[in-house]
Amino acid sequence: MSACRSCGHPELTRVLDLGLQPLANNYPRPEDLQKPEPRFPLCLAVCPRCWLMQITDLVPPVTLFSEYLYFSSFSDAMLRHARQAAERYIREFNLGPHSFVIEIASNDGYLLQNFVAARVPCLGIEPATNIARVAREKGIPTLEAFFGLALAQQLASEGRTADLVLGNNVFAHAPDTNDFVAGLAAILRPRGRVILEFPYGVDFLERTEFDTIYHEHVFYFTLTPLIPLFQRHGLEIFHVERIPIHGGSLRLFAGRRGEHPVHDSVPALLAEEQKHGIQTPNPYRHFAHRVTQLRDELRRLLHQLKSRGHRLAAYGAAAKGTTLLNYYGIGTDLLDFVADRSPYKQGRLMPGVHLPIRPPEALLEEHPDYTLLLAWNFADEILAQQEPYRKAGGRFILPIPQVRVL
Question: How far apart are CA 337 and CA 354, in angstroms?
């Protein structure tokens, strides 16, 4: 087992071993099936000193992100969430033409487009060539690069430091978390703010969200290990908010030490994590046990439905779907196809299990009796979009946090 990537403790404690898994966002084309599909070890562990959850084996970021097929703009919920956040920050922090906003992993500009519209100067940092191109075509200033201390120092030397640094669902992707946080400190103006959003580790454990484990997600953060991590680099977490997106996320506010008053939300959440036993082995053991239970329940249900002659499909060619399908051993023997809204994924195959990915209209055209909702974190949005399918008798199966038929 590798050492902790935050505090350096020499030995990690294994939580859940998912075996050899394909890259969750590496969707092959049908003509690629003759080529070997790479698989890599995927094991979740926790540091017994600082209690940071992390995977044990890394895949080089350039392999994961140079061409990327996740476009945030294909989710109405993500667009709405981004717009509301941008409007709030512009208002609360009095951002205007005099300000500068940097977003790390800015994707296709789904968030920064709101700052551009408000005439707030901004810069996106996005490593995926294809996605950075789309953002620039939309008029979003975008630098094609991976973020870290070296890039932050370069931007700072050019005078491009930020009043606000944003990072939505990127913090957990950075394999060298000390380098990432050091980069935040280097790029921040004296009174600047860092706001990061990421899936929250307590929700991850309590809701058995094991399918969010994939090679891009190196870390699964609770607040407890983040306090010393930020302190190590001269930063202070001064406010936290729990938000419902992605099955339960944390919005973290940080700045230079002593520059912003620390809200009661920080000690309150730390105390709550203590009650959950985050600094004991118990919640991690319970999590692994529940994953096995859910696997057995879902496989039993799907096999029963199939044996009764029902047609089955899935919805949401999400990265989490790759983990669930491969670890549970659910493939073409049980499901006919996966429907997804993104044209970038349509016509391709789900990694590992090679289920064909089709447009959402396939649910009405083919009318499977039951559809496994892999993108359960957008359940409300998808159920509303698929109301005609449901009115025609189609039913959805939610796999997490409990197996339910809707």
Answer: 9
Which residues, in sequence order, are CB contacts of 232 under 8 Å at separation 6+?
178, 181
CA distance 94 to 63: 39
283-405 CATH: 3.40.50.720
Helix axis angle for 149-157 and 177-187, nearest 10°, is: 10
Does this model's pTM top 0.85? My answer is: yes
Kindly compute the dihedral angle of the four CA atoms of residues 268, 265, 255, 187, in this order, to the nearest 10 degrees.
100
How confident is the model over 330-380, as pLDDT tens digits?
A: 999 999 999 999 888 999 999 999 999 999 999 999 999 999 999 998 888
Q: Which fold has domain 63-280?
A: Rossmann fold (3.40.50)
Residue 374 has φ and ψ, to the nearest 5°, of -75, -35
Helix (H, G, I), strand (E, B) or coil at 212: helix
Q: How far apart are CA 285 and CA 101, in angstroms?
A: 41
> What is the overall mean pLDDT for the chain?
93
Name the DSSP class of 206.
H
Distance CA 18, CA 15 (A): 10
- As a whole number of angstroms, the distance between CA 240 and CA 238 comes to 7
Calculated CA dihedral for residues 60, 62, 67, 73, nearest 10 degrees: 80
In order of 21, 309, 319, 330, 331, the CA distances from 325 in angstroms are 10, 21, 10, 5, 7
Query: What sections of 188-318 are H helices per DSSP?
Result: 201-206, 226-231, 265-275, 282-307
* Dihedral sign (CA 197, 198, 202, 208): positive
Edge-to-edge order in the sheet of strand 188-199: 142-143, 122-125, 101-104, 162-168, 188-199, 249-256, 235-243
Least confidently predicted of 24-28, 83-87, 202-206: 24-28
Confidence check: pLDDT of 61 > 70? no
Rounded to whole angstroms, the Cα distance separating 61 from 75 reads 24
Structure tokens at 245: 């997106």
Q: Where are the domains of the chain?
A: 63-280, 283-405
Question: Do 283-405 and 63-280 have the same topology in CATH?
Answer: yes
pLDDT tens, position by position, 216-233:
899 999 999 999 999 999
The strand pairing partners of 26, in sequence order, are none
- Summarised one tens digit per residue, pLDDT across range 8-39 is 999 999 999 999 999 988 899 999 888 888 89
Start-end of H helices in 5-60: none
